[in-house]
Amino acid sequence: MTTALLVLDLDHFREINDTLGHDHGDDLLRRATGRLHALRRRSDMVTRLGSDDFAVLLFPADAAVADDMARRLGDAFLSPFEIAGFSLEVGIKIGIALFPEHGQSVPQLLQHADVALSLAKQTVEGRAIYDALRDPSSAHRLALMADLRAAINQDRVIAHFQPKVSVPTGEITGVEALVRWSHTERGFVPPDEFVFVAEKTGLINPLTLHMLDRSMAQCYDWRLRGLNIPVAVNLSFRGLLDQSLIDKIRNLLAGQAMEPGMPELEITESTLMEDPVRTLDVLTALSDMGIRMCIDDFGTGYSSLAYLRKLPVSAIKIDRSFAIDMTHNDDSAMIVRSTIDLAHNLGLRVIAEGVESQAALDRLERHGCDEAQGFFIGYPMPAETLVDWIHAGLWKTSSPQ
Ligand code: C2E
Ligand code: CA
Ligand code: CA
Questions:
Q1: Which of 5, 156, 245, 257 has the fewest C-beta atoms under 10 angstroms from its C-beta?
Q2: Domains (ranges, CATH) in the chain?
Q3: Residue 145 and residue 133: Cα distance in Å, rounded?
Q4: How confident is the model at residue 136 (pLDDT cuts 50, 70, 90)?
Q5: Is the pLDDT of residue 352 over 90?
Q6: What are phi and psi of 97, to 5 degrees?
Q7: What predicted TM-score, i.e. pTM, was given to this entire model?
Q8: Ligand 1 site, residue 213, Cβ cutoff 6 A
């Protein structure tokens, strides 16, 4: 019978323990254990693995049961704990591994639930099920990375380009380069499946440099054909921990045959806070090279706009989930509206992605959003198709400067 192992980790436990003292830390652990026990079914087991790590064994349970229980456990930690006269908000993150699917022994299940836990820490929901493709040590993943390396070297990893337009004028303002990889046996592999893995295996920088190189070459080609299309390239911040990347980017840009206009780089918000000091250094070095930067997926991380003001960035891109939801969810609409206002007050341009309808575009216009990107405007497409799309004339072009 299938069983699920959930590994749980309390947010901020170490800070609370250090600040309020061990007695209060222990008190928090006791109460957390109480909340876990309150939801447990009779056949389930709750145990403490050490420090603030807990395990819950669900028996019987399939993926759906485990995910539902993880959601309910997460909800049970939404209300604050009253400790030492403080009302403390302490969330939990939950990693899930299933028996026998993800492991046949307790050590293997624990290890895989731990991998899932580190994935959970990168999600808004705070829970994740083990995925061999995202496990740094899985054989499957290592094989995929070897194939990716070969594909980059053989130029089989290509860029598609998704247009962005000015909301008030309908003019095409540029494109975002999105990586596309067609695996010789597996067919199309979505970027979400391999970018994350590449980040963990040192392949991310060869990928970033390849995308920058291809995008710059494409920009040059368009320029020769009378089209001025600035390209934005996604930059994985994790790759920037490698000191040599900045020099490689500098060399790559210096080697361009003609000045095609500097690329814009999109950096995901959630990775910026991992190392704020290094972030500032690296972004300053890139900005000194004349590169404009944009914070991607804004709203999914925890950075405040006040922190962003210290960074040399010129724009934010509101995460696509908000624009997708905004026409039928008032909360999302309000977040979009207030983010636009705050960003403008800080002198930042705002781009909304995930624009899937005229209604969403109209609403963004009312809120004063600067640029929009999404399936309603244009899908990511090969360079040639983009030229046809531009010539179809649904959106205005600007002439080359
Ligand atoms: P992202 O940077 O947020 O890219 C936008 C994603 O939203 C793209 O997914 C795009 O196809 C999708 N999208 C665009 N418009 C809409 C819309 O109206 N509705 C919906 N539902 N989706 C829309 P894609 O190409 O699958 O890329 C996924 C993620 O993979 C990207 O998210 C980015 O984080 C990463 N990625 C893609 N290319 C690269 C790359 O060259 N380098 C790095 N480091 N990451 C990349
Ligand atoms: Ca992006
Ligand atoms: Ca994005």
A1: 257
A2: 3-130 (3.30.70.270), 141-391 (3.20.20.450)
A3: 10
A4: confident
A5: yes
A6: -130, 140
A7: 0.77
A8: no
